[in-house]
Amino acid sequence: MLIRFITCLRSYSSAAYGKMPRVLNVAEKNDAAKSLAAMLSKGHCRRRDGLSKYNKIYEFEYNLFNTPSTMIMTSVSGHLLTWEFTPQFTNWRSCNPVQLFTAPVYKKCPPDFEGIKKTLEREVRNCDKLVVWTDCDREGENIGFEVIEVCKKVKPNIPVYRAKFSEITAGAVHRAINNLIAPDEFTNAAVDVRSELDLRIGAAFTRFQTLRLQSAFPQSLGGDNNQLISYGSCQFPTLGFVVERYKQVEDFVPEPFWKIRVTHENDGSSVDFSWKRNRLFDYDLCLALYEQCIEVPIANVTDVRTRPKSKWRPVALDTVELEKLASRKLRINAKETMKIAEKLYTKGFISYPRTETNIFPKDLKFNDLIQQQTRNPNWGEFASRLLMDGANPRNGRKTDQAHPPIHPTKYADSLQGNEARVYEFVVRRFLACCSKDAQGFETTVDIEVNKELFTAQGLMITERNYLEVYPYDNWSDKTLPVYNVNVTHFYSVYLLIYHEFTSVTNILQDSFEPKSIDLVDGSTTAPPLLTEADLIALMEKHGIGTDATHAEHIETIKSRLYVGLRENKFVPGELGMGLVEGYDSMGFEMSKPHLRSELEADLKAICERRKNKDEVLQEQITKYKSVFEEAFRQASKLDNALACYFGSAQEVREQDYIPEVVEKILTCPACSSDMVLKKKKDNKGWFISCVAFPNCKTVCWLPSSVLEAKVTNDICDRCHSTKLMQFKFRQGTAPMHMQPIYNGCVVCDNELKDTLNFRLSESTVISPPNARNIATPVQSVRSSQQSRGSSSTTDRTRTVYPKTDLKSERSHGMRSFLGAQNASQNFGNVSDTVVCNCETDAKLVEVKKEGPNKGRKFYTCSTSNCRFFLWADEPKSSTQNDQVKCKCPAIAKKLTCKNGQNKGRPFAACPNDKCGFFEWQDTDSSQSHNQPSSQGFQSQSFQSQTQSRKPSMIGRSKKNYSGNTTQIQQSSGEDRRCACGEVAILKVVSKNNANKGRQFYSCPKRSCNFFEWIDEKGDNDNNLDDSVTRSAKKRKCGYCNEQGHDRRNCPRKT
């Protein structure tokens, strides 16, 4: 105990001083994390809470890579991120469903899992390595990459490892951590392709079906019912199997048949001989043959055959067999079975339950596993005999190269209910698989009755073997008397063997008189309706879903009321029947498995590195999109099919339920997504924005002088990339030579751009990782302008469009979310409408509060989104022209300096204190302390360049001049800029020291530590001096004097 205490004390001491590496381990579920931590720590782990109450954190010490390390074990709860459309496409009526095949998508963390995500972000900051312990199948690999994505956002260079295991046992877990590998990006790519396709295909068809059919059948599907009519590329073929079998049953016409049966009875033993013709569908012919038999009713034995017979033991258990047999034998549905199996796996009682493998690995320790089961009172004796004989498992032919077949890993005697039943089935199946085949003898007797042949079979079991422990198979004795063939005084060898093992002692001659010869009638019967086991077998056969998703797809069609259960057999509902019949009438085989099975084959090819994920994605999108467009054109056939079940359909016009397709105008210069024309929420104006909003905030507000705007189908013949637009202007607002209705290109038509005050440049992009159709994040870098209201020409503004007239193009700023000017200011002569900062018409309000302004009217924002304010009795032109905008954008508040050398000087500042805007009002704006940001944005390359040029302080630390300097007005000429792109402030030292009176430049926002003496400024016009551009040294901790942290989170503090 003392040694253990000292060891733990040393471990804690090492961790406290930061000497021990920290490793973040992430499992797929909390139960798995708890079990893994207990096994790796040998029961000595410490538990603490995470930011999600369902996902705990376990800490312990472990020797990883021969290095003592602190292990942090936590978990997620399945998928951490899900594919989503950008907000532009989430509203069902915001776009045409066909656009969902190409709309931008990105991965998003659902609100319920934000706590888990924040836990990972918090923990990984202080960790040196990441180990992924998610389940080792396709979905588990994808979940692991979601964990990696979240962690690498916080710590991009953290090393990542993957633990491969198939059971949560001490041996398997230690083997996994000692043989860590790299995550499989190809398996992850296959799941990403599948999940993105499921989103696009499902959303497009679901919206189309729901909106169309709710409008066509409002009483049955719309109104209060509000029936969601979903579509899935797996659930629809699954529904198709049920409908196809139901139709086979309904359309089946029974056909009568007849057959002859011979019965022989001796000493209470009855044998039925079946006709070798089986049956005839012609009554007269069968009657004639029957009468022929009864004319001479003597049966002659023509042949007796006796041969050994074996019943094979079952092969190793995979997921599909588990689902089918649990449904048939245990009467537990597939979804519940997999839920129970997951629990048993997490507790360490069985191996991983989602596997396509039925071949045991050669290194599996069968004797150890069988030995564990000898304690059981029901099958323990059989397990003991099996150990003596030796295990001889029977393997199948399938393997996924990932997991072994399902088998018990630990003995359990405390389970209850269905958990105990499923565990018992897994154990008995494993023992039966390792045992021997059942043995017996089969006897076949052939007889002749007046030239008509009949046969009978009997069975005698000699060794039951696996049947002793596996009651789920039936093989029973069927005793026959011993028949003699053409011999009276001796018997064949086979008959002697048979006689040796039978209790029948009487020996019959070569002929006998049957007890009866009957003419039996019957009729053909329809195939049975599908059970759950039958449906799973069909899904596996045709490649619909995977072993892990079969149960989910079945539950989906049940929850949507597409199918129901009748005596545990599936029958389609009216809605399910109508949908399948409707699509079938269009000539599509959407209810058939071909499309989905092709996709599953492609996904397997991606995992095996035989196909590229982008090629598969594009190919499948093109295929399903063409089917969707054709289905959309033939939508009336869907109405007609459902009318058979819900009554006549109402006439539906396309424009009543499907929004128009939003046509692309041009490509967004920031993220390469589409820019489209939209109406404002109040329908009183127009704007052109990127479809990737809010991840990309590129937007251009059209002035209020534009009454109507629309996108034409014509492409500009000058820039060859932009669609021409048609504008209708308010009378008197367009130039005299321009028609009231004008067609033009917003990219290269400079006259139109001047009228609209339109200039395309890039705006802020906040793109989620791994987003499709969304560019890499590009952050905006605010550059200074020469003066408020004047043009800004900067070589940092980048555009992807052909340059026409650069001077004209830069003379008009683009309305973006960053410092955009009000469109109405440029069209003040058009209307008396007052427009607020967020480009909406301001509302007129009267002051009701007691005071000097009571009864006075003022304008304010109608949506309360900005802090716009304007007295109504002040001249609009002079007042609005006198307004100063800060960077938010908002109307800056005007104040007067009350203290210091600048007492009495007016200045403008941000009303929200968000952007740090400041500007003196009694000087030219070019000399202000802080300039408005340029409209547009800088490229990421420029941002990284400016960030890397942070200068170090020269001579003295900056804090020596804090409060001991005086700002002076800069002389006219070229501005000096700091490292963050702002116009540097010119100050003079006022403190009594050697530098008193000396002038220097500094950053106006104190954000980049820029500093430069003016008398040391070189002749280089814009470049910083080498000594100035040196990178600042990293700050050191005030407690331990080491870099990388500060004294607040110093690991050496106790």
TrEMBL record:
Entry annotated with the keyword Lyase: no
Biased composition (Low complexity): 778-794, 933-948
Segments forming domain CCHC-type: 1035-1052
Keyword set includes Transmembrane helix: no
Keywords: DNA-binding, Isomerase, Metal-binding, Repeat, Topoisomerase, Zinc, Zinc-finger
Superkingdom of origin organism: Eukaryota
Region spans: Disordered: 769-811, 923-970
CDD domains documented for this protein: TOP1Ac, TOPRIM_TopoIA_TopoIII
SMART domains: TOP1Ac (SM00437), TOP1Bc (SM00436), TOPRIM (SM00493)
Example of a GO cellular component annotation carried by this entry: RecQ family helicase-topoisomerase III complex
InterPro entries listed in its UniProt record: Topo_IA, Topo_IA_2, Topo_IA_AS, Topo_IA_cen, Topo_IA_cen_sub1, Topo_IA_cen_sub2, Topo_IA_cen_sub3, Topo_IA_core_domain
The Topo IA-type catalytic domain, residue ranges: 184-628
Catalytic activity as recorded in UniProt: ATP-independent breakage of single-stranded DNA, followed by passage and rejoining
Residue stretches making up the Toprim domain: 22-166
Gene Ontology molecular function: DNA binding; DNA topoisomerase type I (single strand cut, ATP-independent) activity; zinc ion binding
UniProt-listed GO biological process terms: DNA recombination; DNA repair; DNA topological change
Domain GRF-type: start-end pairs: 836-875, 886-924, 978-1017
SUPFAM superfamilies: Prokaryotic type I DNA topoisomerase, Retrovirus zinc finger-like domains
EC number: 5.6.2.1
Bias type Polar residues, positions: 923-932, 960-970
Family the entry assigns: Belongs to the type IA topoisomerase family.
Function as written in the Swiss-Prot or TrEMBL entry: Introduces a single-strand break via transesterification at a target site in duplex DNA. Releases the supercoiling and torsional tension of DNA introduced during the DNA replication and transcription by transiently cleaving and rejoining one strand of the DNA duplex. The scissile phosphodiester is attacked by the catalytic tyrosine of the enzyme, resulting in the formation of a DNA-(5'-phosphotyrosyl)-enzyme intermediate and the expulsion of a 3'-OH DNA strand.
Protein's name in the database: DNA topoisomerase
Organism encoding this protein: Dimorphilus gyrociliatus
